[in-house]
From TrEMBL:
It is found in: Cytoplasm. This is Probable tRNA sulfurtransferase. The gene is thiI. It comes from Tumebacillus lacus. Belongs to the ThiI family. Its EC number is 2.8.1.4. One of its GO terms (molecular function) is tRNA-uracil-4 sulfurtransferase activity.
Amino acid sequence: MYTTLMIRMAGEISIKGKNRSVFEKALMENMRLAVKPIGGVKIVRTGGRIEALLNGADLDEVATALSKVPGIRSLSPVMEAELDMDRIKDAALKVVEDALTKRQTPITFKVDGRRANKRFPLTSPEIAREVGGHVLRHTDGLTVDVHKPELTLQVEVRESKAYLLCDVIPGPGGLPVGSSGKVMLLLSGGIDSPVAGWMAMKRGAKLECIHFHSFPFTSERAQEKVNDLAKILAEHGGRIVLHNVHFTEIQKAIRQHVPEEYSITIMRRFMMRIADRLAHQRKAMALVTGESLGQVASQTLESMYTINNVTNMPILRPLVAMDKVDIMDIAHKIGTYETSILPYEDCCTIFLPKNPKTRPKLWEAQEIEKKLDIEALIEEALEKTEKLIMYSEGAAR
Ligand code: ATP
Ligand code: MG
């Protein structure tokens, strides 16, 4: 019954001035990638608007894929009707009834008529009045409110067809992935870092991920969990390169030479150094972590200061001021939560000290590290790094 999805871009894109077309092109390209596995769908630009032509593809499937694409504010399914008032009224009724199945009634309503085709005999207000009257006569639970309606039926008379749309499916908003450059996300198997990665993507960053594992102390299941998280992130931001760093030797060296209370601090400093190297290699311009101020011992300001000191790269911490419950809400919304809570061990949990230092000193960390051959350890870990390319489930390769 629906032929098209009408796309509304996030407001921020429309105020980009001269750069607007660059953002729009990036958005359309990302949309094409998102619907590619479904097949048949065409993304086009008509009269200043972006539309997804379904060409027989399943509406819900396409809407679900596109509703995750950053830069999209909302989408609406469009029904087409012949240029004849009776046909338009029939279609109007169907579109409104369909929108009502997802909403509580009574609900306020208005019709917005637009006559782009000036040969059509009725004016825009006349179209709105006639169609509105028809819908009200045949539908229960609607009252008219032309100023602040909860539901708006849009009837647009174009050259050869009328377009009708009513339902509004929210998208993530934000900016098209890739429009802000590339970042390197430190992706653990936890709840926070996938959310941080999603937030960075939503601001236009292309994501690459780096994960530190301690195989054989961490299992293959733990690795699969991280791969799955990367795949879910790929549903939102397209294909994702994942670097798996072999961290075992570094952790062994830390266990041997570092006082237990400093082991987390030193371990994090190694993670940052390696992420910094890989980011340079891969031309990423910032690191991203799932840290939230005060959440655990390694996320106090003193810890962040001491850990941050090994890199000059900006470290983006999208969750820094967020509470855990709010982070968990987003994890549910983006679909990572269920995977994140699977109980497989992480490289940090298996070497977790009983009393980690909450206020580690930079000079002390530097002093302790003198016992380690930092460069050799980093080189070895980088050499054993494995690069994977992750796609969303079902995506064409
Ligand atoms: P998360 O839920 O993201 O694991 P967390 O609350 O468990 O976060 P920490 O364990 O202190 O917090 O980790 C802080 C950040 O360090 C993580 O958000 C992530 O960005 C990074 N990190 C931790 N462990 C790893 C790992 N094994 N591989 C890659 N990054 C990691
Ligand atoms: Mg963690």
